[in-house]
Amino acid sequence: MAQPARFSAPQRLVESVRAEDTPSARAWLAQLPALLEARLAAWGLVPERIAEPGGRSSLLVHAHRADDLEPVALKLARPSGEAAALRTWAGRGAVLLLDEADGALLLERLHGEIPLRSLAEPKAMLEATSLLHRLWVPAPAGHGLPSLAEHARQLGDRIAERRSLPGAADAGPLVDEALEAVALAADGGGWLLHGRFRHGRVLAADRAPWLAVAPRPVVGDRAYDLASLVLDRLDTLAASPGPRGAARRRLARLSEAVELPADRVRAWTLLRAVDTALGSLAAGGTAAAELHLEFAAWL
Length: 299
Description:
Layout: H1 11-20, H2 23-42, E1 45-50, E2 58-65, E3 71-77, H3 82-89, E4 97-101, E5 104-108, E6 111-115, H4 121-135, E7 137-138, H5 148-162, H6 172-180, E8 191-193, E9 202-204, E10 210-212, E11 218-220, H7 222-230, H8 234-238, H9 243-257, H10 262-282, H11 286-298
Antiparallel strand pairs: 1-2, 2-3, 3-5, 4-5, 6-9, 7-8, 8-11, 9-10
Helix pairs in contact: 5-10, 6-10, 7-9, 7-10, 10-11
């Protein structure tokens, strides 16, 4: 693809942005071709291909430097705090940020076709908890990132608003218990969190076995990050013999591996599971909603 203007956004990204249906989202999507062309030119990059199917909120282009053929990845995304987190980690446990400008990130190229999810679950969980130990660092002064306390309040408001959805009537006790977790955000500390840590957001790399990508960083309680890992691969866990016991053992093992109180991890997991379930109900995803509510009940 020699002409940057011929690049088109993946269908999944287009559908996601259009579904949001806000002026800022539509404007960002319309400006993508021009922004892509400008960044390729400014950074002296030769585009190779667009990563497919790609994300729902960003465009990732594989490219290389014209002068030395170094493989890189160019990411175009709306503001999310990702750059601030990557600057803080400076390649320690996460993809290395090479440059940034105008909402574009120039990243080292990882092996996107080899996510941590490609490993068997026990090995993947071991690698994931090891990586979390490296990512959890005190948030830098003046970071400007959202606090988990504020994010948790937003989750609580969203859950409370959606609890009357058809299909959620029987989940009242779980919803109540999940909402109690919002109070945990008040004393969770000032840790830099990935925000959406799971096997699919950890990729194989050349300078390290595995590196985290695509954070949605917040600052607060580390147990919030671990809850994402507890919730990963629910379909596999649900199909295992004795899923209720398996769910509890997974939570206990992961909590022990990173030395966090299991009760805090359980509370955050309930909050995230219920929020995901009600979000799925709102979008018409009954099967996903039932799976997450069932998992919450197992805990």
